[in-house]
Hints:
2 copies of one chain form a homodimer. By secondary structure, chain A is of the alpha/beta class. Chain A has helices at residues 6-13, 17-24, 32-44, 51-58, 74-87, 104-117, 132-139, 162-175, 191-206, 229-241, 254-267, 280-285, 294-310; strands spanning 63-68, 93-98, 122-126, 145-148, 156-160, 181-184, 216-217, 248-251, 273-277, 288-291, 318-321, 324-326. In chain A, α7 (132-139) links the parallel β3 and β4. In chain A, α1 (6-13) packs across α2, α1 (6-13) packs across α3 and α5 (74-87) crosses α13. The first copy, chain A, is built from 13 helices and 12 strands. The mean pLDDT of chain A is 93. Chain A binds a DNA duplex through α2 and α4.
Amino acid sequence: MAKTTIYDIAKEAGVSIATVSRVINKSEGIADKTRKKVLKVADELGYHPQAYAQGLARNKKNIIMVVVPVLSNYFFMEVLAGIQDEMTNYKYDLNIFNVGSNSEESMFHEVENILKRGWADGYLFISTHMQEQQLEKLKRHDMPITLIDESFSGSDSVTVNNEEGVQKAMDYFLESGYERIAMISAMKSSKPSKQRIDGYKKALKKADMPVDEQLIMTGDSMYRDGFSEENGYEAMSKLLELPNPPEACFCSSDIQAVGALKAMKEKGVEIPVIGYDDITISNYIGLSTIRQPMYDMGMYATKRLMNKMKNSKLTPTHKEFTPELVLRSSTDV
Amino acid sequence: MAKTTIYDIAKEAGVSIATVSRVINKSEGIADKTRKKVLKVADELGYHPQAYAQGLARNKKNIIMVVVPVLSNYFFMEVLAGIQDEMTNYKYDLNIFNVGSNSEESMFHEVENILKRGWADGYLFISTHMQEQQLEKLKRHDMPITLIDESFSGSDSVTVNNEEGVQKAMDYFLESGYERIAMISAMKSSKPSKQRIDGYKKALKKADMPVDEQLIMTGDSMYRDGFSEENGYEAMSKLLELPNPPEACFCSSDIQAVGALKAMKEKGVEIPVIGYDDITISNYIGLSTIRQPMYDMGMYATKRLMNKMKNSKLTPTHKEFTPELVLRSSTDV
DNA sequence: CTGAAAGCGCTAACAT
DNA sequence: ATGTTAGCGCTTTCAG
Lengths: 333, 333
């Protein structure tokens, strides 16, 4: 069964390709008889339009593309679930594109090229963490884009306030009377990681507490930017070997907290731990955490994008979700 | 910055579009001077080939498409990590397509249409669970496809023996002397779920033990086919309310086991539990499980697909991975 | 209501 | 070494 085209159908049905195209596209003003005949032949031949030809001809792809740097990551997965569920309300297909670069510069070019290639009708960028100047360049391509987990004044974006989230975690520890509060961070070059470190320091300063750099720890494995169980495990192991170990610990992500918890268990140590994200599993293992409404973020961003695509002169909006402290057993020590 | 085409470059550089095309595609036999000029203009204009036009013209897309029914699922995520990492070795881009259908029939049509549309040069199908007859139809489209987590004699596929995996879990329980062994299953219509139930029954029969249908339990929430924490939680809750509760429990997936563990904790019950998959987190929470080499499966399948694309007359191979029992603390009671 | 023909942006013979 | 031209499969005027 070779690829069948409208030419095949036209010949077989004894009409012109224009007519075939018309019935396939359900345009009106077609004799009922012709339509039926064409449809029948199309079905027999197992016809389906070629995406590339169609896209080229009408300059419309019916595709929404999600662009992400790292696919196998819990944060992304949950955001994606929201996108996916919301997308069922539209007639667009969803494509996920993985930008694989390491350096920030080449990542930008990769992203820009995706836009230039004209893959989709609209784009959702998750955690690509580009600079404003770069984003500015992208806007020149004049494509609907909604940013998730990063923001920029001139673009649609949905984020959650990282510093506020950390603040809430720290406030809890501080109010509970802890003084040596550690933080398990991730890759230094990661923007959310950086923001969380900043939030940590600020919270300490606000409370007139000293910042002990030794207590800001990360593991050695930087797979997935350090947002991994392994990294958290390593970090906590190091923390517990300090001459003066911490009394409490805030983690940049739930997944690292999971690793940290294991390290603690192995050493027989029990200190309160708060994670970040509130991935589904956290509820089941009793991990206290800062909840980011990941699913809602994905859903909201998708809605925004679709609106933007309908009405291109909508003013860009920035939606900031508020993170919340969720207390579970990992803070009961 | 409107879309720039080779026509723009040709005009600006004072050459023909063919020449532009040649230098963009690095074909040889081009005067160094012309090349430089063209490249310069292309750069100034921020040129990048249009994917659809290029794809249409050369009938080659440089895309590998991963087709999955459910995106936000741990099994898929880990397989995907393997695919993603392996793909960095090739010059293809990765696209993920989510088939969103509920009924088996319409799912098949969705999948077939993807093929017909001609998106990619090769496809990786993960857990689509089609019937042989349907797969047979797909083969007529003559596109390189590798199946993951399902198999069919005429296609490249990589699977893991589900029954064998369950057998190992059951053997462990049986040898440890347990008699009332429950199983937490997932959606009945899911193929892997079914296979695992079969394995469970077989193992019992082999050991001359009665099969108590009451002990094959699933939760009410069927989100993600029942492969969720919630489902496991519900199932275990029901199990523990039985007049004669089980002494041990095998779960269809680690993620369900996580839920089951929570239910046990809440009721203050401790029975040994074995999950299925060995997702990364299991190691950190001490969950005994049947390990499926998900990452390796993704990697292996990707390699196969790429080979197949190089050499289309390769004989289809079926690679079956062997699941292994991994004992951790959840079986120490 | 239907057909002819131009065009979407690019590639690949075929010329020169 | 470079230009001309005919497609790739489909949509969309413009005629009739």
